Amino acid sequence: MKGIGAIVKKELADHFSSYRFIILFALIAMVSLITAYMVGIGLREELSGVAKPKFVFLMLFTSTGPLFSLVQFVAFFGPLIGLVLGFDAINRERSTGTLSKLASQPIYRDSIINGKFLSGVATITIMLISILLVVSGLGLTLIGVVPGVEEVWRLFIYLIISIFYISFWLGISILFSILFRGIATSALATLAIWIFFSFFISMGASVIANSLIPLDKNSRKDPEMVMRHMKVQRTISLISPMQLYNDSTTIIIDPTRKTTRSLVFMGPIERLSSSRFERPLALSQSIYVVIPHIISLIAITFICFGVSYAVFMRQEIRST
Amino acid sequence: MNQKAIIETHNLSKTYGNQVAVDDLTFSIEEGEIFGFLGPNGSGKTTTLLMLIGLTEPTKGWARVAGFDPTKEAIKVKEIVGYIPENIGFYDDMNAIENLLFIARLNNIPDAVSSPKIEEALEIVGLKEEADKKIGAYSRGMRQRLGIAEIYLKEPKVVFLDEPTLGLDPDGTTKIIEYIQSLSKDKNMTIFLSSHDLKQVQKISHRIGIMINGRMIAVGPIEELAKEKLGVEDKTISLDDVYMKYFQEGSL
C-alpha cells in the first residue's frame, strides 16, 4: 500500500505527543496501579496462612477490591481510549485543508483511513500491554506468586479481546469523524453512543423484558417464567459491545466461571460453597464457552471499520 | 506554440444533483504554458481543477493529464501534478521542515534525497529563517510560500494553483507571482492558474480561459480576445476591460 507507512508514522507521532493521549494514559495508568495495589494488598491479607488457590495471579485482575476490578475498569473506561483517539481523525484534516492535500499526493485513498485506523490500534495495543505489564509486575511483588503458563495464556487472550474491543470504539469514532463535519459534533456523538451502550441498553433490556414477560407476584415463583424473563433481558443486552466484552473476558480470565449466565437459583452462600469445590475450567473449555461472544466482538469491529471505509471512499474531498 | 498538449479535456461535465457545475468543457493546454483561468466565484473553476487532478469524478466526458486519465489512473496523475488549494492546509503543530518531509515521504522520496531539497526549497521562498517555527504561527503569505516550496520539492510537471494570491498583501502577491513565473521558466512546468487578480494574470499568462456558469466562453491569448471582443489591436489593453466585456455578455 502506497504511502501508508508515512501516514502511520506521522499519526503515531501525533498520538504519542498529543496532550490528550498523555492525560488519558496518565489517568488510566494511575487508576490501574491504585486498583492493582489495593487488590494485591487485599489478596495478600486474605491468603496469608491459607493454601494458595489455583490461578491466584488472575485474581489480581478479577477481584473487585474496594472499588472495581481491573477487568471492569477496562470494560467501562476502555471505550474512552478508542473514542479520544479517533473522534477528530478525518474532520480535523478536512477543516484544516490537509485532507485535500493528502488526497492530491500519489497515495491510495485507502491509505489515509487505513493508516489512521492502524496507528490507533497500535497506540491502543501499546497502552494495554504496558498497563498489563505494570500491573503484573506490581502483583508479582505484592502477592509473590509467579503466573503459570495457563495464566499467561489467559492474560494474552484477554489482551487480544481488549484490543478488538477498544478498536471497535476507535472505529465508531472514526466513522463519526467522517460523517460529521464539526469536531464538537462528532465528539458529542461518540460520547452519546458510549453512554447509550453503557447505561441505557441494560435499562432498556429490563424494560423490554418486563413488558414481554411481566414478572408479578405469581409468575415470580414460576422458575420457567423467571428463566424466560432473564433470557430476553440477556439477549437484548448482548446488543451492547460492552456486554459482549464483559461476558467474554470474565470467562476467559476467571477459570472458575463456567457460564456467562448469572446463577439465578442459588443463594450467596450456596454459590460460594459451590465455587469453592468446583474444578476450574480448562482454557480450551473457557474459550469454547465464549467463542460466540469473541467472534461477535471481532465481527462488529470489522463491520464498523468497513462502514467507515466505505463511507470515506465515496465521500467528496473538497478544500471547502 | 506548437508543443504537445499536456492537459486535454473533452465534453468534461460535472453535475451535483440538478445543479450543473461544469458544462461540456473542451479545451487543451500545451506543455510549459502558463494558463490563466478566470471566472466569477462559483463558476466551476475549482470543480474543473479537482476533476483534472482526480479528486472529483466527472459526470460526463473525459480529461487527460500528460496522457493519463485522472479518474482511472489517479495515482499516476498525482505523481506528476502539484496542487495548491485555495485554503492551503499544513499541519499546524509541525514545523515547515516536518511538513515538507511528510509530503516527501508520501511521494516516495527518500529522506536522504529530500532533506537537502527541502532546505533549498525553503531558501528559495525565503522561509529558511522560519523553518523551525510551527505552521500555526505562520501568516497567510508564509503559508502560500510554503506551498510553493512544496512544489519545488516535488517538482511536478503540471502545477494547479487555486487563488494563490487571495488575501495577500501587494508585496506577497508580487513574490508569489515571481515564483510562479520562475517555476515555468526555469523548471519548464506547466502552470494552471485560477485567479481573480487580473493584473497579475495578465502579467504572466500566455493564454487565458474565461469560465462563466460552468462554461468556458473564451480561450486564447489576451491580445486575440481583446481583438475579437473590443476590436482593438493594442498591446496595452488591460485584461480588466476584456474580462468585464465577456462577463457582461456571459451572464446575460
Fold and architecture overview:
- The complex is a heterodimer of chains A (about 325) and B (about 250).
- Chain A is an all-alpha fold.
- Chain A has one domain.
- Helices cover about 75% and strands about 0% of the residues of chain A.
- Chain A contains 13 helices and no strands.
- In chain A, helix 4 crosses helix 9 (about 185-210).
- The longest helix of chain B has 18 residues, at about 170-185.
- In chain B, the strands form two sheets. A six-stranded mixed β-sheet of chain B has the order 5-6-7-3-8-9, with helices on both faces. A three-stranded antiparallel β-sheet of chain B has the order 2-1-4, covered by helices on one side.
- The two termini of chain B are about 35 Å apart.
- Helices cover about 40% and strands about 25% of the residues of chain B.
- Classes of the chains: A mainly alpha (about 325), B alpha/beta (about 250).
Provide the descriptors you would attach to this structure in a database record.
heterodimer; A: 320 residues; mainly alpha; 13 helices; B: 252 residues; alpha/beta; Rossmann fold; three-stranded antiparallel beta sheet; 9 helices; 40% helix; globular
Summary, kept brief:
In chain A, 77% of the residues lie in helices and 0% in strands.
